[in-house]
Amino acid sequence: MFEILMLLCFGFAWPTSIYKSYTSRSSEGKSVIFLYVVILGYLAGIVHKIINDPDFVIAFYAINAVMVFIDLMLYYRNKKLFNTKEKALESNA
Predict the structure, then answer these.
(1) Residue partners of 76: CB distance under 8 A and separation at least 6
(2) Cβ(64)–Cβ(45) under 8 Å?
(3) CA distance 17 to 83
(4) What is the DSSP string of 39-73?
């Protein structure tokens, strides 16, 4: 019960983070290392559940991991957009 509550609480934060990453088109303020660590944590939780206590809670870990992965991909998209913009500004100077 508490494990599900924890995953739900964490899970509610990711859609907001994804939305902000998507609309801001900026990777500023994001820690790519943090995103990788969180994904690693969710994957470790999935492996633990598979080995020791397989049940439906795995789905909550997987959903959260997918949301963090989406945010990670948006980080790289936004970084690429920034670099492209910087190169365009440099070439116009």
Answers:
(1) 27
(2) no
(3) 21
(4) HHHHHHHHHHHHHH--STHHHHHHHHHHHHHHHHH
Q: What is the pLDDT of residue 93?
A: 64
* Dihedral (CA of 35, 40, 45, 50) sign: positive
Domains detected in the chain: 2-92 (1.20.1280)
Using CA atoms, how far residue 83 sits from 75, 76, 87, in Å, is 12, 10, 6
| Residue matched to tokens 């290392």 | 33
Q: Convert the pLDDT of each residue in 4-38 to its tens digit.
A: 999 999 999 999 999 999 999 999 989 999 999 99
Residue at token pair 């957009």: 81
Across the range 60-80, mean pLDDT stands at 96
Structure tokens at 27: 């990777």
